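Narrative summary of target 7.
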Amino acid sequence: MKKRFFLLLVFTFGFMYCINAGIVTVRILTTTIVNTFIFSPLSGSYNVYGDGVLLADCDPSGIFQMNVEGDSILLKTFEKNMGKFTNIKIFAKEPASAFKIKSLVPNGNVRAYDDNIEIFLSADKKQFLLINKVDLEDYIAGVVQSEAGKNTGFEYYKLQAILCRTYLLAHLGRHIMEGYEVCDDVHCQAYLSRSNEEIIVKSVVDTKGLVVVDNDLNLITAAFHSNCGGETCNSQDVWAMPTSYLKSVKDTFCLHKSQAHWQRVISVEDWKSYLQLKYKNSNFDTNKTDEGTSFSQANGRAIYYTDKNSKIPLKTIRADFKLKSTYFSIRQEGNSIVFDGKGYGHGVGLCQEGAMNMCGLKYTYKDVLHYYYKDVNLVDLSALNYFRQE
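Modeled conformation, tokenized:
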């Protein structure tokens, strides 16, 4: 009980700190085991600290390399080794500063980020933990660009900014015990770099502080996916988590977009072997040539693949075969099983391609928000804090 109370206290403090101070800590390059990388300012100048001691300052012409060496971080420039440290913190000296990093081991692309970076070693001392301490709205701009891409349209970017901000603040506690608040992978939200698109930055500024709440003033789970294939899913059908706002919606706006349709072909033998494994305790008969070779979702989304009172969750089939979605029908063609699929993603919440099309048709971001999320309210964080205090 004490531990749960402590975690709740830490999360609540972190949430309020993030809102009030406007800073979020993000682990970057989460999925890469980085052993060596280089840092250089992109704009502005930086102070470099090793174990709390000021070591140097640098402008955009400066470059630092960091290596994992034993249980320490070796810091060096082109001219000299600057020593070994347990942590290195590089802080911007002016507002609106940015930096770039490049992983050398393994070799990676150059990435650019706003504000500050802190460098630690992992618990096993075998890789870097790179933590971007970034202004919340700068982070949101980077997420919007990573999740929505370029050339999408101002109205849609405003909607995506609101959803990404809501999602962030609703999930700040995910990595709190690991020393940071969110990661840069899809486990939290994709955050591949700072935004370099003026239209995206403006969309974030114009919606600053806006979040989505349910009728109880709780931040919603602002789920979104690429394409629903014509119908979104109820949250409980995918995550066993019923909500008042993540309800199935018929969606014609995404039907002619790039991710609306897909197909996958496997052998009948592989499919029947799979069914036999999944149906091992049922009366399923793999020896019958037509058994298990037909399944349709022509009249709407289903939750299970069923045959003779046995059933497999469609999300299980999707995961096992790495399919784009659970919205598929099955038919046999000769010795092959054909999956005729619709959509891309889990299908819950906002359909991105449908929403982009709606915005292109001059629907406002508020219209689109209420189309995909039911019984929700758009509020400013300051107003939300006021109502919660009441």
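Residues 1-18 have pLDDT under 50 and may be disordered.
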